[in-house]
Amino acid sequence: MSQAAELYSFDPVSNQFTFLASVNCDGQTDPYTLAVDHEGTFWMLFVGTRDLRTLAPGELGTCGDPGFTPNLASFPLFGMTFVGDDTPGTCPELYAHSYSGSGPFDEGLAIGDLGRYDAAAETITSLAAIDYDGGELAGTGDGRLFAFAGVSPAKLVEYDRATGAAIETIPLDGFHKTGASAFAFFAGDLYFFTEAPPPGCDTCLDTSCAQDHTDCLADPDCAAHLGCLLASGNFTDECGGEIFAPLLNCLNGPCATECFPEHEDRLSQVVRFDLDNSEGNGQVLEVVVPEGPIRVVGAGTSPCVPYVPL
Which of 166, 71, 160, 87 is nearest to 123 (CA)? Predict the structure, then answer.
């Protein structure tokens, strides 16, 4: 799902995007996230109303209303995904990762919630307090639930879908959650959609303040904070606070336009994570699309897609 409320497919074999349809649900044009259920139906959350709408496969011009009660205290906004397993007689369930909607994404003790959608009650029930405010979710057909959250660096967290307890947390060193970010699972791999680095920023820094840029890249702390700031566009003590002052002056001065374009003008890159180490090189991140055609705000796969390598 693009920021402009357009649906695209992404082929993990060819790494190609394909336009499917423009979405207009009751005039809502500000999508926040996307999930796909076992029947291929798209579930979309919109920022303005904080409400859910659905699109059935083959009927992309007609939006459905699942009856969700919006503006929940613990889940004003949320990332979401469906998770299934092979238990007879059960259907995949929709899980939600809370975001307060105020300020940049954050992490800290018990500042967020992991929940599960209760269709009968038309609400989300909290499973557990979690340490992240703002995160996206990806689920599998064999019962695994993952979150993409955190700052400096971003983290991949696997949760117990029954209790909400964290099973494993993997720091994604050098990788950052951006203002628009999403991810999805397919055949043993995770595909992250995050804002691509501003294309003209490095050129400007190397032209306007080459030595300061070089000095920062040679210092691990400065380099990490520079990467975080350029990815998120939001300066905090934890994301940008260790950048050397001369370089910071350059970023805020001659290179401000090139390094901090308007968020809506940024496009997304696609980064693949070999979760199951099927290629034998470890759990590594690989940029497979340096810059796609849209700014991705939501992504999802049905729990029916393969969960082992093809």
Answer: 71
Instruction: State the Cα angle at 154 between 247 and 14, rounded to 5°.
Output: 100
Q: Helix (H, G, I), strand (E, B), or coil: what is residue 263? A: helix
For 242-267, the pLDDT digits (tens) are: 999 999 999 999 999 999 998 888 99
Domains and CATH numbers, the chain: 6-196+266-289 (2.120.10.80), 201-259 (no CATH)
Q: In sequence order, what DSSP letters do the residues of 155-170 get, joined into one string?
A: EEEEE-TTT--EEEEE
What does pTM read for this prediction?
A: 0.92
Dig out the tokens for 37 from the structure: 């259920």
Could you tell me which of 60, 149, 54 has the C-alpha nearest to residue 96?
Answer: 149
Helix (H), strand (E) at residue 257: helix 256-259
| pLDDT per position as a tens digit, 169-210 | 999 998 989 989 999 999 999 999 999 988 899 999 999 999
Peptide bond into 303 cis (omega under 30): no
Phi, psi values for residue 255, rounded to 5°: -110, 15
